[in-house]
Amino acid sequence: MVSAFSGHSVALALLIFASVSQAGDRKPFGDTLSTEHYGRDRTVDVLHYRLELAFDPPNSEVRGTTSITLSPLYDGLSVLELDAGPMEIDEVTLDLVEGSERLAFRHDDGKLRIELPREYDADETITVEVRHAARPRSGLYFVGPDEANPDKQAQVWSQGEAEDNRYWFPSFDYPNDRATSEEIYTVPEDWTAMGNGELLEVTQDRDARTRTFHYRMDTPHVVYLVSVIAGRFEKYTDDFDGIPIEYLVPPGTGEETALRSFGPTPDMLRFFSEKTGVRYPYAKYAQTCAIDFIYGGMENISATTQSAETLHDERAALEFDSWGLVAHEAAHQWYGDLLTCADWSHAWLNEGFATYWEKLWWEHSAGTDEFLYRMLGARESYLEEDRDEYRRAIVEHRYTDPFDLFDSHLYPKGAWVLHMIRGVLGDDAFFKAIAHYTRSHRGQVVETVDLRRSIAEATGVNLERFFDQWLRHGGHPEFKVSKEWDADAMILTLHVEQVQQVDELTPLFALPLQIAVDTADGTVHHRLSVERAAHDITLRLESEPLLVRFDPNFRVLCELDFERPVAEILRALRRDPVVTGRIFAARDLAERAPRGPAIDGLAEALDRDSFYGVRIEAAKALGRVRGPGARSALKHALGDPDARVRTAAAKALGQFRDDAEAARALRRVVASERAYGTYAAAVLSLARIGAPEARETALRALGVDSHRERIRVAALEALAEIGGEEGLDTVREWTAPGKPRRARTAAIAALAKLTVGEGPQRERTIRDLLLLLDDPNIFARQEVMQALAALHAEEALEPLSRSAKVEPDSRLRREARRAIRDISASRSSGKTVGELAAEIERLRDELRGQSDRLEEIEKQAP
Fold first, then answer.
1. CA–CA dist 617, 587 (Å, integer)
2. Cis peptide before 718 (omega within 30 of 0)
3. Nearest CA to 642 among 311, 320, 260?
4. Which of 184, 535, 539, 622 could staple 630 via S-S, CB 3.0–4.6 A?
5. Do residues 200 and 215 make contact, with C-beta atoms less than 8 angstroms apart?
């Protein structure tokens, strides 16, 4: 027993050291190219954009005239400067009553500088027309059939955020200026073009075999929200309060599939209209599906562009829905469109709001449990980035590209800031304040201070300290809590400490906390104002405390280390009325309880808890605990009525290495499961446990179609898990152009994982990956950069440096810089990122094995 325990301790120490080393390696936000960015100066107030543009899909070209009506912001304006990327500027003219006048201009370094015929004063209005043509690499995208994808549908679509509309029409391309817009788009005669605002007319030119769509948006908006998407579509319609709602989907989709994705839209618009205090403010709301879209969705004003991947069949709907994305983009029509951040450092006012209102719609439509579970997911996303990547303030002025800020601090942490404000104010005051903010700033650009002042105006509550902590600093409270019960005096003492490292970035937080203590006589509630590093709370009770619940309603973004007796954790798992309390109890059991009680409690929760999210967490925890009882409970959960729970159980069985009984259960899943995700999880788990048939199962799964390629992705991950040179050729085949996008990226990652050691195979892999750095697909290029970093490919440093400079997408320029950083770091450490990860996983496996052997010894002991 002593030697088994000693080996257990060594493995545990090594694992902790590896984990701490990873967490301790949190990187600084930004890189050597990052600089301070503040709101851009304006010399003019743009009043109106009129785009008369024709799209030529075969030649990937846009050509036409952009007219810009504006007023100077000061007297004596003689030179007008616009943003204009690489394009041909044919002519610039000034509109005059009696005609027009040609103007001299210079176009270089992304700027179009126009010399006006005289000095103009602030009370004057002028209109400048620019004739131009472009074949953009960013901002406007032409997709369609090619040699590798002969059946791909042809489309044209734009993506203007952050500052990319300048690549297809001249503009003041920054979010602190608002103007109305008019779009006149000419496309092939069998195409439809979707623009912003009201459709005024459609005309046809039979000789030219074209159609022209004329839209007008009368609500002023920032220029990145100007959009177009054109192609062949099926159109389905709905209505909200007399406002037309449109869904444009690829041909052959069918109404049932379209409504499966977009059906709740009217309810979302109604809910947001009521809660924001502003009725949906535009003439229509359209959602149009884009092929190969580079984001999930984009909130172009009144005309959201959605990825075609949001459409899904009945089998996918067993565990997938589009409604979070649909709600997010619909919420943006208020926060991001009607009110827009004045500069990118305040972009959380767009994205944090849309993320939280997406969760609020779930609370409205599915109840509090669903809402809290999704807020838990937001918490996990933020904590993972904060732990493994970097820590930053939400309102951050130092960055390289604006999209550097579009991360888990901006979206989920931004949502959590709003959730905590709601907790501080209470529901009535919170929604009153948000309605006041929305009404008083509609049609304006906003900064974070505008929200704080609106809250003070509506409620009288001064949240300046709160805003400073949570928005201009980084991090979150890390609480360590212990308790003592004096049975004679009937006094419960709680010791609450903030143990996070306090520095220039991370403060000591001041915030209100709720504590609930369940006793046989009822529940005692206590409110604590945390102001110091440590607090002692003394509560006199009528009877013994049975369950202490810290932040019982899940209102504070924090980490909590609360040492509780196993009996209390079990009680929390069974009886905590708040879903997140039961989930944290499930996690605590896996970490803190002996195997027997942990398995019993988790198995009960997996079988009986009414909320699917708790059952999922119980399945995950059982996978960490392992043992025969855990395996039995997970096998039983493969019959759960909710496919999401079945998927979690199948994943958890992947922790049972060399377990024939687990393998038999997973084989039955592969043979009979209907849900894509559960089937995929079983394929991957067979590989992880080392089942003899794992390779054959993965190869068969490569022939199975599924939504978002879930099954093929799992099959390729399985081949990488199995290892060996046998899978290399198969994986290489799936990296080829023409393979489905998600399968390709999974194959690229698998190729890097399967390539071990030095020699010809490594040289070939790196050579193949370097060729893919110029692949037309943005997601393939991104995965290649990550694979090169994982391989410690010093040969890639020069090509990656080139990508960091010339890559048209700012996200990939950042990815290239990260790959360069990681390759350089691994060069100095002597180990690749992949090797370090493999070492940690080896230690985990060793720890699991030591735990199992220790348990067997303990069972045999007298």
1. 7
2. no
3. 320
4. 622
5. yes
Per residue in 367-403, pLDDT tens? 999 999 999 999 999 999 999 999 999 999 999 999 9
**Which two three-digit tokens encode residue 282?**
């535009």
Terminal Cα distance for the chain, rounded: 12
Distances (CA, A) of 322 to 292, 312, 374: 17, 8, 14
> What DSSP string runs through 302-358?
TEEEEEGGG---TTGGGT--SHHHHHHHHHHTTBTTTEEESSGGGTHHHHHHHHHHH
> Could you tell me the two tokens for 529?
């104002």
Phi, psi for residue 39 in degrees, rounded to 5: -55, 140
Confidence of residue 22 (pLDDT cuts 50, 70, 90): very low
Beta-carbon count within 10 A of 368 CB:
13
What does the H/E/C string look like for 220-259? Answer: EECHHHCCCEEECCEEEEEEECCEEEEEEECCCCCHHHHH
- Mean pLDDT of all residues belonging to the chain: 93
Residue for token pair 């043509």? 133
The 8-class DSSP code of residue 27 comes to P
**In angstroms, rounded to a whole number, what is the distance separating the alpha carbons of residues 83 and 107?**
9
Rounded Cα gap, residues 716 and 734, in angstroms: 9
Q: Give the closest residue to 193 by CA, choosing from 213, 178, 210, 207.
A: 213
Q: Is the pLDDT of residue 46 over 50?
A: yes
| Its pTM surpasses 0.85 | yes
CA 817 to chain centre: 21
* CA–CA separation, 495 and 479 (whole Å): 10
> Which among 565, 535, 527, 561 has a CA at the least distance from the CA of 547?
565
Going by pLDDT thresholds of 50, 70 and 90, the confidence category of residue 686 is very high
Q: Is 203 exposed, middle or buried (0-12, 13-18, 19+ CB in 10 A)?
A: exposed
The helix (H) or strand (E) run that includes residue 128 is: strand 126-134
Element housing 70 (H / E) = strand 61-72
The secondary structure of 740-774 as a DSSP string is -HHHHHHHHHHHHHH--SSSHHHHHHHHHHHHGGG
With beta carbons less than 8 A apart as the criterion, state whether 583 and 569 touch. Answer: no
245-299 pLDDT, tens digit per residue, is 999 999 999 999 999 999 999 999 999 999 999 999 999 999 999 999 999 999 9
Nearest to 222 by CA among 394, 402, 399, 25: 402
> Token pair for residue 694?
């794992």
Annotate 641-652 with b (16+ C-beta within 10 A) or e (fewer): ebbbbbbbbbbb
Least confident of 22-36, 230-244, 351-365, 510-524: 22-36
pLDDT in tens, 799-842: 999 999 999 999 999 999 999 999 998 766 555 545 555 555 55
Lookup: tokens for 534: 């440590």
> Pairing between strand 559-562 and 478-486?
parallel
Residue 55 has pLDDT above 90, yes or no: yes
